[in-house]
Structure formats: C-alpha cells, structure tokens
Amino acid sequence: MIIHHLQEKNSILNKFISEIRDVNVQKDSLRFRRNIERIGEVLGYELSKELSYFNVSVNTPLGNKEEKLPNKDVVLCSILRAGLPLHQGLLNYFDDAESAFISAYRHHPNNDATFEIIVEYFASPSIENKTLLLADPMLATGQSLVSVYEAIKKQGVAKEIHILAVIGSMEGIEFIKDKFPENTHLWIAAIDATLDNKGYIVPGLGDAGDLAFGAKL
Which of 45, 100, 178, 206 is most buried (most C-beta within 10 Å)? Predict the structure, then answer.
C-alpha cells in the first residue's frame, strides 16, 4: 500500500484539521461538515495527481489549445453516514464521477468493547476496471474498510483503488495494509498514534457521524 500522509507537510489543511478536533469549534455542526468537505477537496486534489490522463483539444474564442484531462472512469464510494460530507468534498472536484454508497456499523453482540462490522445497504454501479475512490473519514481499527471492500468486490474488480480518510490510527493502517491490492493508495490527512479500549482514535476528534448529523440512538 502506498501511503500519502498529507499533514507531513504544513498547509492550510492544518487549519481544517485543527477545527474539527477542537471541542469548542466542533459544536458548530455546519462548520464541522464544511471542514470535512474542505478536507475532501484537498485530498481529492492531491490524489488527482496520480490518475491517468488523456489529451483533448479545447476550442477557445481565439484558437485551439491541447489540454490533459483525467480519465472519466471514477467511482466514488462513501461509507454512510459519516462519509457524506467527505463524499461531497470529493464530488466537488470529481463532478462527473459515478457515486456509490454503502452502510457499515459496529455491532456489539455482548454489549462490551468487542464488535463486528455489519454491512447492510449497498448501492453501486459496476466498478469493473474503473478507478475506485473509497472514502471514510475515520480509519480507526480498519475493520469497516475491509468489510466494505469485501462487499464492493462483488460489483467487479477495480483497475485501481484510492482510499481517502481524514484521521487514522497507526494500528488501523497496519491492519488494512495487506487486505487491499499492493498498488492501493491511501490518502490521509492526519495520523494519530493509538486507539482506546473501545476502538476509537486517540486523540482523534470523537464520533464524526454524531458531530456532523447529531447523536444516534
């Protein structure tokens, strides 16, 4: 897996990450969603440098100009519900991409810290020989991403895979490394060191879905 850790270099991204972490700023759910969206735009811009391009001739009022455009084979798949603002940020840049949505949640059968990932809803075009962008804001244990990928593979084999995450843990990254094809790219804004005993990223930011859309039952 090829890992691109964007916060290794200072940029305006630092501001967006700082605000989604800040307990005072994140109380504004509108701003929280917008910051996740803006982080999605930054991630999308960076990954666009690795895509395949083709030549086109553009007619201007004064002549023609050769340009290079990315291949139109992108399928953007986000994990519900926390992935929706990230999806929108990516869609702002990849506006002609096909969209897929998949649900994944933690089920605690014994009402303790142990859990399994349940994947229920999935709506997707074929991904056969296409460029798959798989978006999930929080890469904690990595189990959700792996479970989702197993479900997505039923729609075909992607030509290339780009995983996009806002914050991840070292443990989660290590877990998914050998669960995806070797040439998979991981684009991640920030990496934190640890998980707590419930599998949440520390220091992280809390529950991204709850902060974006309100506490769930």
Answer: 100
- Whether the Cβ atoms of residue 191 and residue 8 lie closer than 8 Å to each other: no
Residues of the chain with pLDDT under 50: none
- In DSSP notation, the chain reads -EEEEGGGS-STHHHHHHHHH-TTGGG-HHHHHHHHHHHHHHHHHHHGGGS-EEEEEEEETTEEEEEEEE-S-EEEEEEETTTHHHHHHHHHHSTT-EEEEEEEEEE-TTSSS--EEEEEEEE----TTSEEEEE-SEESSSHHHHHHHHHHGGG---SEEEEEEEEEEHHHHHHHTTTS-TT-EEEEEEEESEE-TTS-EESS-S-HHHHHH----
Summarize pLDDT for 53-106 with one digit per residue, the tens: 999 999 999 999 999 999 999 999 999 888 999 999 999 999 999 999 998 877
